[in-house]
Amino acid sequence: MDLHNIRESYKFDSLLELNLESNPFDQFQYWYTSYAELRIKDSNAMAIATVDSQGIPSNRIVLLKAVENNEFIFFTNYRSAKAKDLLSNPMVSALFFWREQERQVRIQGRVVRITKEKSEAYFATRPYLSQIGAAASEQSQPITNRAALESKFSEFQNKFPEGSTVPMPEDWGGFAIQPISFEFWQGREGRLHDRIVYTLEGHEWTTSRLQP
């Protein structure tokens, strides 16, 4: 594949210190709200990078479900590959890529499990089929074929028909990312991109500009 002639010209916006929010969570909310207003599917998608016990990195897309108390919350099966990585090494990197506005936000931090009560409260709001899928799937574990997976799904539908309460699996729940740094990236023409980093020093956030 010859990709070297693919070029983009970035002219959507700038990111100058004069216009920065002093708190990175406020800056994130401003950018996220602006992007969500475009009504693009999965505007809350973020790439999560983890490292396993052997130092091998993995990356995958998950959906951000809440930002509260200065934490970014997402949900998964605690027996999944990503969860096993995080339980052995709680440091994580999250990346939001908002192409239509030529923006990226990169977050580094530590994860903690949220309370079971919070996980159950969120699980109860999920669509019925999403609840059944979470209950039926042993996430990241091998299975013979698609038919076997669909058979498991049907078994759980029969056990918990629509309209009944689907119990949250014991090994399912939320993680909260507690950020220690943010990088806000705004594409600019001529590759002179704006890169502003927020770093947590004690209880205060400081900002600096990186060269592109």
SSE topology sketch:
Elements: H1 24-36, E1 45-51, E2 57-63, E3 66-68, E4 71-77, H2 81-88, E5 91-98, E6 103-113, H3 116-123, H4 128-136, H5 146-159, E7 172-186, E8 194-201, E9 204-210
Antiparallel strand pairs: 1-2, 1-5, 3-4, 4-7, 5-6, 6-7, 7-8, 8-9
Helix pairs in contact: 4-5
Write up this protein:
This protein is an alpha+beta fold and 212 residues long. It has 2 domains: 17-123 and 171-210, Electron Transport, Fmn-binding Protein, Chain A (Pnp Oxidase, Chain A), CATH 2.30.110.10; 125-167, no CATH class. Helix content is 25%, strand content 34%. It contains 5 helices and 9 strands. The protein has helices at 24-36, 81-88, 116-123, 128-136, 146-159; strands at 45-51, 57-63, 66-68, 71-77, 91-98, 103-113, 172-186, 194-201, 204-210. Strands 1, 2, 3, 4, 5, 6, 7, 8 and 9 form a 9-stranded antiparallel β-sheet that branches. Helix 4 packs across helix 5. The radius of gyration is 20 Å and the shape is globular. 21% of the residues are buried.
The CATH class of the largest domain, by name, is Mainly Beta
As for the number of domains, it is 2
Find the CATH topology of the largest domain: Pnp Oxidase, Chain A
Span between termini? 27 Å
Residue windows where pLDDT falls under 50 for at least 5 positions: none
Helix content: 10-25%
